[in-house]
Amino acid sequence: MTQSEERTASTARRYEWITFVMVLLTLATLGVGTFMLARVERSIVAAVWLPLLLLLLWSTSRLRKEYRQAQQESAWARAAEAALLQSQERNRAIVDTALDGVITIDAAGIVTEWNAQATAIFGWAREEAMGRLLSETIIPERDREAHASGIREYLKTGVGPVLNRRIEIAARHRDGHEFPVELAVSPARIGETYIFSAFVRDITDRRQAERRLASQYAVTRVLSESITLEQAVPRIIQAVGESLEWDLGVFWRLEKQSGTLRCLNSWQDETGAADAFITEMQSQVFKAGVGLPGKILESGSPVWIRDVTKEPAFIRADLAAKTGVRSAFGFPIRIGGDIEGVIEFFSHQVRESDNELISMIADVGLKIGQFGERTRAEEALHQTEAQLRQAQKMEAVGRLAGGVAHDFNNLLTVIRGYSELILSRLAPGDPARREMDEVKKAADRAAGLTSQLLAFSRRQFVAAKVLDLNALVMNMDQMLRRLLGEDVVELSEDLDQKLWAIKADPGQIEQVIMNLAVNARDAMPTGGKLTIQTKNVTIGKGSRRHAVMLEPGPYVLLEMRDTGQGMSEETQAHLFEPFFTTKEKGKGTGLGLSTVYGIVKQSGGTIAIESKVGQGTTCKIFFPKVNEAVQTAPVIGGAISRATGRETILVVEDDPSVRGLVQETLRLSGYEVLVARHGIEALLTGAKHLGPIHLLLTDVAMPQMSGPEVAEKLTVVRPELKVLYMSGYPDHPVFDQGGVKRETAFLHKPFTPNVLTQKVRDVLDGKKAA
User: Fold this and answer.
1) What does the radius of gyration of the chain's CA atoms come to, in whole angstroms?
2) What was the pLDDT predicted at 635?
3) Do 450 and 614 contact (CB within 8 A), yes or no?
4) Rounded to the nearest 5°, which phi and psi values hold at 753?
5) pLDDT at 575 exceeding the cut of 50
6) What's the whole-number mean pLDDT along residues 349-358?
7) Torsion sign over Cα 66, 71, 77, 83
8) pLDDT 10s digits, 186-237
9) How far is it, in rounded angstroms, from Cα 558 to Cα 622?
10) ∠701-706-710 over CA atoms, to 5°?
11) Which one has a higher pLDDT value, 543 or 391?
């Protein structure tokens, strides 16, 4: 029973007692009056008894009225108190079911109200929190003095820095960890004192979502501002680490050749608490399946470790414990389906596994991979464009070089031919023989230069055959050692014993190796090492391409590495240009690498040069694999002597000097020679000549009519006619016309009289043309 109900009951009992007494008095008065009426005068009795009776009746009526009023007031009080109690219970239910924590404190900072949501947020039960100082429950220790001074300031001035507005601060859970909350505090005055009501909302999830969104934005921004993966990843690690509040990040780059992960970049927060941890990692490497990076590399999936100090597989646990590193997670970086590296993040706090974070980080890894694919495609495009520009430039220069070499070959044919004819007529002791020998030697050297020009322009005569590159290198071993000087340059050979076969001109491949060896020797004037390596390689569609673009498929690699001075990027940009040289004046023609380039391209191969100043040079040549058996070259011995004959030969040559030399050489060898300046004249000569014509010896490229066209028309009327072509370069477009093939009997300019007569004799005798 409440106090109000007790007071109401006491009043009712009092009125009931008074009423009872008044009724007794009334009865007593009536009895006394009756008795007196019998003995006293009626007038006296009436004067006394009647007023008294009326007073008693009035008092009784008054008391009954007050009693009824008291009962009514008691009912009203009970109803008001029930309504108040119901209101308090309703307010209590509203406060307890609120989504925000509701906390009330008095002016001393003591908790006077604590709802259920406050318990859910901070971990303190209502019974535990009530009566305690607020600063002892939810306020971090560093902020407690500011909280107390804020209350004092408000009580003193009526102004508070955090009152009547929403703010975001750090709060403390019962277990000690801190988390962000949104807080609104409102003061209220009750009598002469104040109370403060706080409405608190846990915004941990919102903050996480904001940080993750900020992290994704940061990654997108970094990728848009970066050019290469190596440039982007360190900035991404920092952006993700700062936005997600991790303390340390590491990027492990995969070395393809060794299959190991090596620390390429790292980041840590401003505290620098993990300096020793980072220093140690910079010297570590991980293989697949070893440690956290190796486990990610092996599985290809993200990995989360709640506490690395308690994880047996985490081989850096002792170091992590010393530097305060606790939680860790990592994920792979994929480019084109291949893992290129691993990113790790570490925290000084124990963090529970977060599937949403792992999913978000997987998306970050996908973006990084897409960026890597895009940059690689752009790099390949730029490289292809550069190669195309270089190829176009080389093609233009090659056409010029080929044309010049063709004209020079005509001149050299005449010089070499007539010098040999003159030498054949001079006695061994003739004084003029020495001068003529010098003329012939000069012509031979000039012929070598034109041969290099033709090789560069890819118009050199090629006698391609299936060959074993290892055998060719071993046959050149002694010659290369003499060339390099074994006391200066060490020659090392690393040859794959199961090397595939290639198809190329052996003489040209020897020329390639010789040129590259000479360049390597010149790059190592004080000594060094040259390594020649052969091996089989297969270029796949998904694998990383080499320095030049290659079509997928099997290749034979010829690699020559030196430990010389190396070359700058500027020098490498001009390596294959004809007449470009870094040697002193008079010590190089600038045609060495141009010749190599032309030979490799003409053989269907690809060449790439890798070099850095002070770190040597590596030349890689890729030849397509062939599935044919290696051909053995026949051994030819003895010197070539001038062959003779009596047949009739029709010579068609537009250059008068060459025409005169060929006519004179054949005439001296016993042949009957018919000459023509061009194709039409050759047809007229063939029509006028009544006797047989056994051989047509014609230049390939002539005005009005090409050599193959002349041969086609003459063989119609003279089916028995045999044909021998001569030209300064064997891949003139006419070879692709009229069904004429390069395997047809061919005489390459410049030639000597002996070579001319021998080739003529071979064709006339029906021997297979070389």
Assistant:
1) 55
2) 40
3) no
4) -55, -40
5) yes
6) 81
7) negative
8) 888 877 788 888 888 887 777 777 777 777 777 777 777 777 777 778 888 8
9) 7
10) 135
11) 391
Instruction: Give the HSE-up count for residue 208: Cα atoms under 13 Å, Cβ half-sphere.
Output: 11
Q: Cα dist. 469→376, 401, 465, 495, 505 in Å?
A: 33, 29, 11, 9, 11
Cα gap 707→288, rounded to integer Å: 66
Of the two residues 244 and 605, the one the predictor is more confident about is: 605
Euclidean distance between CA atoms 278 and 247, whole angstroms? 12
Q: Which residues pair with residue 331 across a beta bridge?
A: 343
Query: Cis before residue 506, ω within 30 degrees of 0?
Result: no
Give first-to-last CA distance, the chain, whole Å. 131
Q: Which residue has the higher pLDDT, 91 or 494?
A: 494
Its pTM surpasses 0.85: no
Give the pLDDT confidence score for residue 535 in this predicted structure: 92
Quote the CA–CA distance of 340 and 255 in Å, as a whole number.
8
Residue type, 515: N
Quote the tokens at residue 647. Answer: 């047949």
The tokens describing 525, both together, are 């004037």
CB-facing half-sphere around the CA of 38: CA atoms within 13 A: 5
Is 67 a residue whose pLDDT tops 60? yes
**Long-range contacts formed by 490-494: CB under 8 A, 24+ apart:** 490/527, 490/528, 490/529, 490/530, 491/529, 491/530, 491/532, 492/529, 492/530, 492/531, 492/532, 493/531, 493/532, 493/533, 494/531, 494/532, 494/533, 494/534, 494/535
In this structure, what token pair is assigned to residue 361?
């980080």
Does residue 637 have a pLDDT over 50? no
**Helix (H) and strand (E) counts for the chain?**
21, 23
Give residue 244's identity as a one-letter amino acid code. Answer: L
CA quadruple 635, 637, 642, 643: dihedral positive or negative?
A: negative
- State the amino acid at position 685 in one-letter form: T
Examine the pLDDT at 18 and tell me if it is beyond 80.
Answer: no
pLDDT of residue 289: 86
Distance CA 643, CA 10 (A): 159
Other beta carbons less than 10 A from residue 721's beta carbon: 17
Helix (H, G, I), strand (E, B) or coil at 104: strand
CA 328 – CA 309 distance, rounded (Å):
10
Tokens of 623: 């030849």
**Tokens standing for 210?**
């904001």
- Dump pLDDT digits (tens) for 274-316: 778 888 888 888 888 888 888 888 888 888 888 888 888 788 8
The DSSP code for 426 is S
475-482: list long-range contacts, CB under 8 Å, 24+ apart: 476/510, 476/513, 476/514, 480/513, 480/514, 480/517
SS3 580: coil
State the Cα–Cα distance between residues 737 and 745, nearest whole angstrom. Answer: 16
CA distance 277 to 442: 71
- Other beta carbons within 10 angstroms of residue 429's beta carbon come to 6
DSSP per-residue codes, 455-495: HHTT-S----EEE-HHHHHHHTHHHHHHHH-TTTEEEEEEE
Task: Give the pLDDT of residue 37.
Answer: 53
Given this model, what pLDDT does residue 395 score? 66
Number of C-beta neighbours around residue 311 at 10 A: 15
User: DSSP class of residue 500?
Assistant: P
